[in-house]
Amino acid sequence: MHDHADNARGRNRRRLALVLGLTSVYLLVEVAAGFLTHSLALLADAGHMLTDVAGLALAWIAMRFSERPATPERTYGFHRVEILAALANAVVLIGIAVLVLVEAVERLRNPPAVASGPMLVVAIAGLAVNLAGVAILHGGHRDSLNMKGAYFEVLSDALTSVGVIVASLVMLTTGWYYADPILSAAIGLFILPRTWKLLQEAVGVLLEGTPANVNLAAVREALLAVPGVAAVHDLHVWTVTSGMNALSTHVVLCAGGRHDPVLDGIRRRLAEGFEIHHVTVQVEGSGCPDEETHA
Asked: Which structural domains are found in the chain, ordered by start?
């Protein structure tokens, strides 16, 4: 289990590094093109790209931190840094979407003239870079919230590039400058709900809520079905980081129930049925008082 997670984390770190390199190079090209063509639109998009580069760098740094070993002060290591990075990326993306919507409303009132030709060329190059980034990260975006946040960063860039291409073509052929704010608003509205879901997932992990893929009632039934278990209380399941769920509980033995077989049966059932491998179980005799049940 740990070897598989470590291998996936290593692959994802290399994917992030590659996408970060590609995006950084394109950022420099876009800034240079913006100054050479005197295009404010390209410079504004470069500012958006800068936030994405920062988000990808944060995701990569978080992944490096999460590989550090546990210490007496941090017994779970630095795994939660990945969740904090996902939270930061979600907040940044929501902020970008809101800013895009505000700017789109302002431009609808008074759409400025845009240098559509250079804007089109650079947007096409940007789309190629972003599509490459989406393809690279697609294989790992389901492995962790951190990777999902980075994936959404690049995906939002790709959508922005498509919008810029369409808008530049419309403006280049018709001179209708309203195309820019209308498509920008559509992109902002597309980004918001997906990013909001990422934010909810990250906050849920930090609040140690029950993982969405774990049915707590089914876990309780599985524990009660273990031979020798009479009752279950103080049952908690939470996520340390993406792909790493933990559980703690108290179980009461039946009369004649034996500690070691019960404990072995619980661990085996949780691993096979729910992929929960970090388990803490307090086994109590049938004479122990029943305590408050939290779940």
From this structure: 2-206 (1.20.1510.10), 216-284 (3.30.70.1350)
Report the distance separating Cα 271 and Cα 276, nearest Å: 5
How much helix, strand and coil, in percent to the nearest 5, is found in the chain?
Answer: 65, 10, 20
Q: Are 26 and 49 in contact (CB under 8 A)?
A: yes
The answer to whether the CB of 279 falls within 8 A of the CB of 270 is: yes
What confidence tens digit (pLDDT) does each residue in 164-189 have? 788 889 888 888 888 877 877 877 78
Contact call for residues 205 and 145 (beta carbons, < 8 A): yes
Residue 272: CB atoms within 10 Å:
10
Q: Which residues pair with 250 in a beta bridge?
A: 233, 282
Per-residue pLDDT of 19-65, as tens digits, reads 889 989 988 988 888 787 666 566 666 766 776 787 788 778 777 87
Which runs of consecutive H residues, i.e. helices, occur in 110-144? 116-138
- Distance from C-alpha of 251 to C-alpha of 98, rounded to nearest angstrom: 49
DSSP string, 45-64: HHHHHHHHHHHHHHHHHHHH
Structure tokens belonging to residue 71? 């210490």
User: Structure tokens of 32?
Assistant: 């240079």
What is the C-alpha to C-alpha distance for residues 97 and 73, in angstroms, rounded to an integer?
A: 38
Contact at 8 Å (CB) between 245 and 239? yes
> Can you name the residues that pair with 239 across neighbouring β-strands?
245
- β-bridge mates for residue 233, sequence order: 250
Specify the pTM: 0.69
Q: Compute the distance between CA of residue 165 and CA of residue 275 in angstroms, rounded to an integer.
A: 45
Write the single-letter amino acid at 292: E
Can you tell me which residue has the tokens 């096409």? Answer: 124
